[in-house]
Amino acid sequence: MKLSDLLATFEDMAETTLDIVVTDEPDPAHVAAIASGLDEFNLAKTGATDRRTLAVLARDPGTGDVVGGLTGRTSLGLWFVDLLHLPPEHRGSGLGSRLMRAGEAEAVRRGCTAGVVYTINFQAPGFYVKHGWQVFGEVPSGDGVSRIFLSKVLGE
């Protein structure tokens, strides 16, 4: 038996001896263990340890309460926008544009050359397009709902 076949056999054994658990409330320590494992793998492949959270918050100056903002992360030269939300009373005021500009500036400062976001067709895909993002894919998920994937070259 070749060494590669033996190693494949051991990998198959490991897969069959582990329990699979599905949850919508993972323990934060478990999520951290997965992230750490991925970071170690990426470091071994690229030498980069640059994955960082990026949040841009809109705060009430009087109370300090966060009323909206965007969250995401930067990693390996990409800015991932995960969430963007403003309450209705702040939409259309230019605040969303300010959030995006601040996020993009920070992503560029961190060395990112492109950004990726997905939104839902009933949310605000036009908002992203207006800010220079380009649609590169759409995935329908039923009942007229679809996810729209966009990217942008940063710093232009």
TrEMBL record:
One of its GO terms (molecular function) is acyltransferase activity, transferring groups other than amino-acyl groups. The keyword Mitochondrion does not apply. InterPro entries: Acyl_CoA_acyltransferase (IPR016181), GNAT_dom (IPR000182). The keyword Membrane does not apply. It holds the Pfam family Acetyltransf_1. Residues 8-155 form the N-acetyltransferase domain. SUPFAM superfamilies: Acyl-CoA N-acyltransferases (Nat) (SSF55729). Signal peptide: none annotated. Keywords: Transferase. This is Acetyltransferase (GNAT) family protein. It comes from Kutzneria buriramensis.
